[in-house]
Amino acid sequence: MKRFIHLILIVLLCSISVNSMGQVTQFPYLESFENGTLNEGTNIYFMPNWFGNIVDSHRIFIEKGNTKSGVNALGLWPVVDEGEDGEEIEITAQVNLDLSGLENVVANFWVATIATGAMKHVKLYLKLSVDGGVTFGPKFIMGTDYRGFVNADTPYKEFTFPLHTSANNNPDVVLQFMAKAGAKTGTVAKILIDDIYVYEAPEDIFPPVAVEPKILNVNEINIRFNESVDASSLDPVSFIFSSGSSSGHGGSESGEHKFANLIELPTVGSITQTESDLITLNLTTPLNIGKYYDLEISNVKDLAGNTMVTTTSTIIYNPLTTGLVITEIMFDEPPKEQNDNLEFIELYNTTDEPIELGGLSIKGGIASGKLPEFTLQPDSYWITAKNAVAFTDFFGITAHEWMGANLSNDEPESLFIVNTDHHSGVMIDSLTYHAGAPWPASAAGLGSSMELIDPLSDNTDSANWKSSSNYIGMYNSSAIYASPGSANSTLDIKNLSLEKMINLHPNPVKDVLTIDSKLKIIKVEIYSVLGKKVKEIYSDFEHIQTSGLFHGFYIVRISTENAFIVKKIIIK
């Protein structure tokens, strides 16, 4: 919600920038940040004509000494401070430009990085708005490779970006730099920007830039350019697919992979120019779901005859929206002074069809990066771990290794499985666990993982989780209980059969909840969504009075002689 409010503030402030804060009107415009002081705050103009979302001593800041010229440079560091919630953070700094009477406008600038320790990439995008910052066009990524900038000290590198033709003679242009990375403090490089030079070229001498491929389906890919392109230069042989350089994506994995030499690469049959700057690739050989590809684009010309520089983009298509559930978490193995080598998260395929993991991400308390090419079979499990080598050595199971942060051992931790490659931020699964009651106590540093009891029921409910009882062995003189990669020790056939043998109705319920059961029930408990027990019944299970409860969501735990089931109801 906080991020949404910030976005609204950015939109409102940018929309009135002409009247309230002014714009750059004199060109050529050179900004070297030599003033040396920035106004600090959230969603503010931190210097004349420049707007930033988080301005402080380390998120948007002045870097002294490490510059392209002069004594100052602009610093961007997309990190989450300790104690903040959020699976990732975006740092944005943007300048307002009045380009009235100008054409062929070009932005030239220099970028360097400062290492901060962990080996993780940071992405820097350039975005353009032609309506005062209300909306922005596709992102143009900068960096040392397809992932952005490595976490290392890198020298200043020059970037030249011809603005889209929609900026020509436009009084409401906003040029935005956006640095983006995953969660936790100090996991990415600091980005330095210096000597931003915006000018009108005497003529169009710059080649077109392929801004951002967008996959429509397995047979169609849209490619947007920063200017109109010559239809006669569009040749299918100029668009070449190869196995993606990001297909490994960290760590080791087990299971079924799609090996590049066993897959026919996509080919372009024809090209449709739907707009002057937008083309659609029509594939004769389709994309494979969950497969990373490198798409090389070359020989495209603009209307002035400039030929683009050959570029390569990594793409992937995955339409998944549901079917993956987080079923087991080890977040705090003993002793307290450990380095979290055994931390892991288990995913489970609840469907009766294989699921491709490529293109998905786990976010929140950790930053997995894009998941690897991996086919997760029905009723099967997949593991990602903090330290894949240590995990394998102890459990005897290979795992994907996530990047960066540890899971929280004391504060509430949110985890999300998201699909951002085809769907814009589709949430496949999410939960927020607590270290301690009402969540399983033994998972908080006493040697147990936390296991989901029923993967078909609500995994956001603490009553649906138990401490593992499956003894693995001793680690640092402490007993470890867990079941990664297999059915949870708290779940057996009896539990699964309850789903079909016990039914609740009506749902939503007003006054009386009816339970139809083919098994003997010994107890029924009703919990609020916050985990507080509000009702406990030991008899007359067929008809349970709910009229005294407030409207809203509740969790019903039904215990039989040998097992129990958890179901969600709505009281209206």
Write structural notes for this entry.
This protein is mainly beta and 572 residues long. It folds into four domains: 2-200, Galactose-binding domain-like (Jelly Rolls, Sandwich), CATH 2.60.120; 210-315, Immunoglobulin-like; 324-491, Immunoglobulin-like; 494-571, Sandwich (Immunoglobulin-like), CATH 2.60.40.1930. 41% of the residues are buried.
Mean pLDDT: 83
CATH class of the largest domain: Mainly Beta
**Helix count, DSSP H or I runs of 4 or more residues:** 4
What's the number of extended β-strand segments? Answer: 39
> Residue ranges: pLDDT <50 for 5 or more in a row?
1-20, 247-261
Give the C-alpha Rg: 27 Å
| Helical content band | under 10%
Percent range for β-strand residues: 35-45%
CATH topology of the largest domain: Jelly Rolls
Give the tally of structural domains: 4
The biggest beta sheet is recorded as:
6 strands, antiparallel
The CATH homologous superfamily of the largest domain is called: Galactose-binding domain-like
Distance between the ends: 26 Å
Principal-axes geometry comes out as elongated
CATH architecture of the largest domain: Sandwich
What would you call the structural class? mainly beta
